[in-house]
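Q: Please design a sequence for this.
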């Protein structure tokens, strides 16, 4: 009886040891899932990743704390799941130059799980293991469909002198429901230089960022070099660089709120060869609201509200160096509302320009622009400057601008190439009682060119009246003290 009791106790101890060994622990819970029983170190995570090998599997890390003894390495087809709390670590996922590999990093929600960069590491919080060999290249691989979700990613800015929030050479990534904050460089950098044709499901390149908040970066909020095609539900603020800076085509950026404060950057920029087919949201930049670079691949449709800081010299709400751009919405508070910087362009502007020092700068139109806007310009401001092209089609109705330049109503008809500019009073009319056969009226606002005026004697005698006008005054000559009715309409340049 004594020996049997000792034998049972020994068997129980052996079972307990087996429970905590990696292989038995993994097999006991799930053939492909490991719940943390290993040391709370990056090396401990890496040993479990090695144990899973080529098998797809999940590594659950449930002990918050510092994992800064080394970089966490995540192999292909493995999922790293973090529990509630703050996990201080830097993660490098697998990549490949010859095949599609994938992995995922997730938490319990951006209000529950914080993934923070190890202090003084100067590393990216999440990257791929061989990013340095892929960046700037044309590989068709890298990381395929990595998933990053349900986290707050903290770049630990105050303790770093380098590093990004997320930086990947990747095709078809899926990033959702995250907050990325306190980044020394860009918060999200996605790059893909391959030439995949999307002929099959395995050649998908449509990367997505959704339901993401980006706060506080020394660089850009998002830099896109081929990785992202859809960006939806984005809130970006407190970046010194651009909110979004794209070097390649993005099909859709909608539901975005971007507020950046950099004095040499702004809300959204499309670089040479970049484009955003549809851009919708509220975008307020430092120097620019939206900057459309030269040779951007149109067409682009921009809608919503754009603004730039009027306190920054040369600030522009919408600057266009390309063609086939359509804007519908409101542009406000910039030094210049709309700046055309491309000759021979076809662009369409509709909406309201409010409180911009200059509404539109047409210095480099030379194209076929179609413009219909209402403006309110500040004192000493201007509704537009420059010269319209004979092929432009323009209707501008401006108010305000005391002491500045206000053409009132500007119309340009492309067919006739005629430009008509009205003072703020538009059509002027009134009556004058002659004194010894002479009279005049000074316009409340001067015309830019002498208006065309007519006049008639309003008395029963219907005596003849002579009328002349310059940009400031209509002058009448008639009989005695007749009451004369006059009307002036804008003249053509």
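A: Design:
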């Amino acid at each position: 009886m004594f020996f049997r009791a000792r034998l049972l106790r020994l068997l129980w101890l052996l079972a307990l040891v087996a429970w905590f060994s990696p292989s038995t622990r993994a097999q006991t819970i799930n053939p492909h899932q490991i719940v943390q029983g290993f040391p709370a170190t990056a090396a401990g995570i890496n040993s479990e990743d090695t144990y899973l090998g080529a098998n797809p599997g999940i590594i659950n890390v449930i002990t918050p704390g510092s994992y800064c003894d080394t970089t966490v390495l995540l192999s292909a087809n493995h999922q790293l799941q973090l529990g509630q709390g703050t996990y201080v670590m830097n993660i490098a996922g697998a990549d490949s130059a010859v095949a599609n590999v994938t992995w995922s990093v997730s938490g319990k929600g951006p209000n529950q799980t914080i993934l923070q960069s190890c202090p003084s590491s100067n590393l990216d919080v999440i990257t791929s293991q061989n990013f340095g060999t892929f960046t700037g290249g044309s590989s068709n691989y890298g990381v395929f469909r990595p998933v990053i979700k349900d986290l707050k990613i903290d770049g630990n800015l105050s303790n770093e002198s380098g590093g990004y929030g997320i930086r990947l050479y990747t095709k078809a990534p899926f990033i959702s429901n995250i907050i990325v904050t306190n980044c020394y460089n860009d918060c999200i950098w996605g790059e893909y230089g391959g030439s995949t044709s999307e002929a099959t499901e395995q050649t998908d390149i449509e990367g997505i960022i959704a339901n993401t908040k980006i706060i506080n970066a020394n660089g850009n909020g998002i830099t896109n070099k081929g990785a992202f095609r859809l960006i939806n539900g984005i809130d970006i603020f407190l970046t010194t660089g651009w909110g979004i800076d794209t070097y390649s085509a993005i099909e859709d950026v909608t539901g975005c709120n971007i507020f950046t404060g950099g004095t040499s950057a702004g809300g959204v920029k499309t670089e040479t060869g970049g484009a955003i087919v549809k851009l919708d949201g509220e975008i307020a930049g430092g120097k620019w609201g939206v900057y459309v670079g030269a040779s951007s691949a149109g067409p682009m449709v921009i809608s919503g509200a754009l603004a730039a800081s009027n306190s920054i010299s040369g600030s522009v709400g919408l600057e266009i160096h390309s063609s086939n751009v359509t804007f519908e919405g409101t542009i406000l508070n910039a030094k210049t509302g709309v700046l055309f910087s491309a000759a021979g362009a076809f662009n369409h502007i509709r909406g309201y320009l409010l409180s911009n020092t200059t509404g539109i700068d047409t210095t480099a139109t030379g194209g076929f622009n179609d413009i219909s806007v209402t403006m309110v310009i500040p004192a000493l401001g201007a509704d537009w400057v420059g010269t319209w092209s004979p092929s432009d089609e323009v209707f501008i109705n401006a108010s305000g601008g005391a002491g500045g330049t206000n053409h009132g109503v500007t119309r340009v008809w492309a067919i006739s190439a005629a430009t008509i500019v009205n003072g703020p009073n538009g059509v002027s009319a009134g009556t004058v009682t002659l004194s010894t056969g002479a009279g005049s009226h000074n316009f409340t606002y001067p015309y830019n060119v002498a208006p065309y005026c007519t006049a008639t004697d309003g008395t029963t005698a219907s005596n003849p009246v002579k009328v002349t006008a310059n940009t400031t005054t209509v002058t009448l000559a008639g009989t005695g003290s007749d009451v004369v009715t006059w009307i002036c309409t804008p003249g053509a340049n």
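Q: Thanks. Anything notable?
A: The domain at 30-239 is CATH 2.160.20 (Pectate Lyase C-like). Residues 27 and 33 are 8 Å apart (CA to CA).
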